Amino acid sequence: MEGTDKAMYEQIIAEFGEDSYQARVEVYGQFPLDDEGSFISPTLVMQAFARKAHNDPSAPIIMGIDPARSARTAR
User: Fold this and answer.
1) Of residues 19 and 66, which shows the higher confidence score?
2) How far apart are CA 64 and CA 67, in angstroms?
3) Side-chain half-sphere of 17: how many Cα atoms within 13 Å?
4) CB of 53 closer than 8 Å to CB of 39
5) Higher pLDDT, 21 or 7
6) Cβ distance 7 to 13 under 8 Å?
7) Residue 1 pLDDT more than 60?
8) Which of 20, 21, 19, 23 is nearest to 8 (CA)?
9) HSE (CB half, 13 Å, CA atoms) of 45?
10) Distance in angstroms (rounded) separating the CA atoms of residues 21 and 19
11) Rounded to whole angstroms, how far apart are CA atoms 32 and 34?
């Protein structure tokens, strides 16, 4: 395609890989599968939702919360 630097795109793929965040966005013009700055990627969350739940009555109950999500400033 005219106006593109094929060598630059090949360098990005060679450096980061074909399925990398950089290649998806900069070379292929696709949305990234995951957010680089996220603690748990959206892909892992979707894979977890797709798995069948396993009921283990002896397993501990674990709950995660974000206490800062609705924190109010003190006055």
Assistant:
1) 19
2) 10
3) 3
4) no
5) 7
6) no
7) no
8) 23
9) 8
10) 7
11) 5
> Two tokens at 6?
């094929």
Cα gap 51→63, rounded to integer Å = 19
Residues 6+ apart with CB under 8 A from 34: 21, 41, 42, 43
What are the structure tokens assigned to 38, written together?
A: 């996220």
Q: Which two tokens stand for residue 64?
A: 């995660």
Amino acid present at 14 = A
Distance, CA of 9 to CA of 20 (rounded, Å):
12
pLDDT value at position 63?
85
Contact in structure between 25 and 32 (CB atoms under 8 Å): yes
Q: Give me 8's structure tokens.
A: 């630059």
